[in-house]
Design a protein that fits this description.
about 575 residues, alpha/beta, Helix Hairpins, Rossmann fold, 4 domains, six-stranded parallel sheet, 20 strands, about 15% strand
């Protein structure tokens, strides 16, 4: 605010001085020129009446001559003063309009308004730096759960897109460079309600600067950073960044899971991607794969599979001198030509990975490859979210879109971190166990989109259950699954994971009793969580679930019931 006032006063200094001098000259002149009163005597206008007269004269309102008709000399001075004040006002107003249009002032005013809005947020929020495809998907996911977010984006066109979104909760936004510490502070970095900083810009170095600044200015805050460079990731990790996300590394692990444990991938996709339906994959477990593109994405895939004896790669790369040569057969080319694909033995291949940084080339690669080998298992990289329609038409078996991968991964970390633990524990089980769980989930969900949530049994979020446990009244998972509208029915949900003290129980039984500070991961139909919250918050509903007794909410009726019991 001080900077804004300083800029205004500096730019308006000369126009204000001109106005003051013109008004002073006009006022002093009208007091020195004599006039005639109604008795024919000479009189001089006093300073107050002169100030009053010049004030409305200078604005051309024209109330008339006061307190007596002016003399000729006075009228000549009024004419001169009128033109002087009008010119001074035109000059001052022009300078003011020019100041309002000044980019520096407008930027300061926008930043000041943004900082005030963020300061007035009194609930947990996440500071999201970057509103590209990833940021847009992440903000949408948070808004679905009514979680607050603040966005800083360096490109105005992306801010304009955000302004057009109709989110249920207002999202404060600023077009600025998030790598500057002052911008992060204005965005709420030091706000006690800031739950975390998420650096997902398109620039690795900008994400690194954001992560370092966040950890130095607020060491206790959660910081999530996007990188696609190993050197930057190591640097970011050295400053204590909580979560470092590399979309290529995540996808390469996902592809490895798809080839070796497709049911586990199907389970993870159903629980994390929020899809209406998840179709099972039938990828080849062994054979030759053609990898088109040996950049960051291609190298991540190659490194993930290089120790696998059942998978053999042939790499196609247009500039191997720049990217480096892999330790397998390498064909120089784009992969969009049939000759290049034939050199890579496409007729013998079981799968192809189109992983260049150009969407058109990737689509061309798979279309040409399918003509030569229709039975290929196709994996394609989608670089831009705006090409979603044509990639759906391509009907690839697996589509790798970095923005969606990052957004989905961060959404899980922020909203349901227990889901990560659940997936890790699920890897220990065999194919049949995963298949049975998927079928059971489909039966519970009735083929609808799943809703995943987690809870912690504490006094703030589960007061009714907390009070019951404090009074040594046992509460088990069956109580939470009971429908509060009819205790003989169950809600359409299942507990996936129960964390109790140091114990992790996968798919716990209904008979498992709850402890204070226990954590539970749930999967159920949309809307089930709101019914469960009634049990967690309302002691009368919990009493009905536990005992079947319907307790009146009216003190009078409860008093009458107690009299009848006596």
């Amino acid at each position: 605010m001080n900077t804004i006032l300083f800029l205004i006063m500096r730019r308006m200094r000369v126009p204000l001085l001109v106005l003051l001098i013109v008004y002073a000259v006009a006022i002093v002149g009208i007091t020195l020129i004599p006039g005639m009163d109604d008795q024919g005597n000479l009189w001089y206008m006093d300073f107050f009446h002169a100030y009053y007269f010049v004030s409305y004269m200078g604005t051309t309102i024209g109330f008339g001559e006061i307190p007596y008709p002016f003399s000729e000399a006075q009228r000549m001075w009024v004419i001169l003063s009128l033109y002087m004040t009008v010119i001074a006002w035109i000059y001052a107003i022009g300078a003011l309009l020019s100041l309002i249009q000044d980019d520096a002032l407008r930027s300061m005013m926008i930043e000041n308004r943004f900082a005030r809005m963020v300061k007035n947020i009194h609930e947990p929020f996440y500071l999201i730096c970057g509103y590209g495809d990833t940021g847009s998907a992440l903000v949408s996911s948070l808004e679905e759960r009514f979680m607050r977010s603040v966005v800083i984006e360096i490109k105005q066109e992306r801010i304009n897109i955000l302004m057009m979104e109709n989110y249920p909760v207002y999202v404060p936004k600023l077009c600025a460079d998030a790598s500057k510490p002052l911008i992060l502070v204005n965005g709420g970095l030091k706000n006690p309600d800031c739950a975390g900083v998420i650096a997902i810009t398109d620039d690795n170095l900008a994400n690194l600067h954001i992560a370092i600044t966040a950890k130095l200015l607020n060491p206790d805050i959660t910081v999530i950073g996007r990188v696609d460079s190993r050197d930057v990731a190591d640097n970011m990790d050295s400053f204590g960044t909580d979560f470092i996300i590399d979309p290529f590394d995540i996808f390469s692990r996902k592809l490895h899971t798809a080839l070796h444990a497709p049911n586990l991938l199907l389970l993870r996709e159903c629980l994390t991607t929020q899809k209406e339906t998840c179709e099972p994959l039938e990828p080849p477990e062994r054979g030759l794969w053609v990898l088109c593109g040996y950049g960051r994405f291609g190298k991540a895939v190659y490194e993930q599979f290089k120790g696998d004896k059942n998978i053999r790669f042939v790499v196609i790369e247009a500039n191997p001198e720049r990217t480096g040569y892999p330790r397998v057969e390498c064909i120089k080319g784009w992969g969009t030509e049939a000759d290049t694909l034939r050199q890579a033995h496409i007729e013998e291949a079981v799968g192809i990975i189109a992983g260049t940084n150009d969407d058109v080339n990737n689509l061309s690669i798979i279309m040409t490859a399918r003509e030569l080998n229709p039975n290929l298992f196709v994996v394609i990289r989608q670089n831009k979210a705006e090409n979603q329609i044509i990639f759906e038409a391509a009907k690839a078996d697996i589509v790798m879109q970095p923005s969606q991968i990052i957004a989905s991964h961060i959404r899980v970390l922020l909203t349901t971190p227990l889901l990560v633990d659940f997936i890790i524990l699920a890897k220990q089980f065999k194919y049949d166990w995963t298949e049975k769980l998927i079928k059971y989930l489909r039966k519970i969900l009735n083929s609808t989109k799943p809703d995943i949530w987690q809870m912690t049994i504490n006094q703030e979020t589960c007061p009714a259950v907390w009070d019951a446990l404090s009074n040594n009244q046992p509460v088990n998972l069956k109580c939470l699954r009971t429908d509060p509208r009819n205790r003989k029915e169950y809600l359409a949900c299942i507990p996936l994971l129960l964390v109790r003290a140091e114990e992790n129980i996968l798919l716990p039984e209904d008979s498992e009793c709850l402890d204070k500070n226990a954590q539970i991961l749930w999967c159920g139909k949309r809307g089930v969580m709101s019914w469960m919250e009634r049990i967690l918050h309302d002691p009368l509903v919990l009493t009905y679930i536990l005992t079947g007794e319907i307790v009146s909410r009216s003190y009078v009726w409860r008093w009458l019931q107690n009299l009848r019991i006596r």
